[in-house]
TrEMBL record:
The lineage of its organism: Bacteria, Bacillati, Actinomycetota, Actinomycetes, Kitasatosporales. This is ATP-binding protein. It comes from the Bacteria. Residues 33-158 form the Histidine kinase/HSP90-like ATPase domain. Signal peptide: none annotated. GO terms for molecular function: ATP binding. The keyword Chloroplast does not apply. Keywords: ATP-binding, Kinase, Nucleotide-binding, Serine/threonine-protein kinase, Transferase. Gene3D superfamilies: Histidine kinase-like ATPase, C-terminal domain. It comes from Streptomyces siderophoricus.
Amino acid sequence: MGTKVLTMLEPLWQGFPPVDPLAVSGSASCTLPPRYESVRSARKFTRDTLQGWELDELFDSVALVVSELVTNALRHAVLAAPEHADAPPPARLHLMRWSQRLICAVRDPSDDSPVAGEADSAADSASESGRGLYLVDSFSDSWGWHPLSGVTHGKIVWAQFRLP
């Protein structure tokens, strides 16, 4: 992997479990335009990428997590804050494959931390939202987030999967 690619991914390493960046065996990313159709595009991008890496068996869990992370980025950061919509890119999905791990990371322009919803009560049982980070936690091996450092605003929310 070239030095240019490692330099582009450097902000993503912050907050991840310790892994040698040189152990990256694959990396792919796509821009997420500020519209909800981007969730479907992110799932297709994830399917195509995992197929290329011969990790098809992970698709269901990874796609669910990607859908939740992308939906949260769009709903709470991009579409909720039009002043950030012009920032290139408004949101971005990164998939990184290490020797024993897969990382799904979504970058968005908001400085706000992700907040898990409380959708456990009977009053919330019909709620359409509030379960996203609970699902991310349930279907991934770990997840976290960190603010972007430097002059840019935003954060990275990531989920990790152990590879078979």
